[in-house]
# Entry
Amino acid sequence: MPGKQINVEYFFRLLYEWIYGPHAVFNYAGFQATVAHIWLWIIFIGYILSVIGLFVIVYTTVRLFELRKREEVYYSTPIASPEATGGVNPRWQHIESLANGASASEWREAIIEADIMLDDMLMRQGYVGDGVGEKLKAAEPENFGTLQDAWEAHKVRNQIAHEGSAFNLSESLMRRTISRFEAVFREFKAI
# Structure
């Protein structure tokens, strides 16, 4: 069809009338006002959330500094050597009192406390690592006669930590585990 051309301008005029015309299907001005109104609410809510977030950050920062001060005091307190306390380590006495308790929760706490004491002792002996397991991996069996006892005791502690009260801790297992910790501590003269 030569000579007939499509009038693109006509289609754009129809589109313009549809959006902006007096009988427009799409009310652009109303849409603009609605979007502006919603945007104002988004800004208002954003400011409120920002202020709340700022308060949360300040609060957690203050609490973190308080916690660090308490940790500094706690960890800077020297642990008395057995010789200074008449041959008795107070931490070990506490662990033994928990082990002599009647409930399984006290036994679990005794094993966890003994593992923490083991971690401290290994750190003082110069073993490096993120936890007891890594420090024990770094230990040489010829310099650590009770290494197997330390591993077995630490395994029981891990079971307690992972299973919690669901772990069935018998009195005999607790006694064996505490005895293993005691053997390690006696080897390194920690108790």
Remarks:
- The two ends are 107 Å apart (CA to CA).
- The helical segments are 8-20, 28-76, 90-99, 104-124, 132-138, 147-163, 171-187.
- DSSP finds seven helices and no strands in the chain.
- The chain has two domains: 1-77, 90-187.
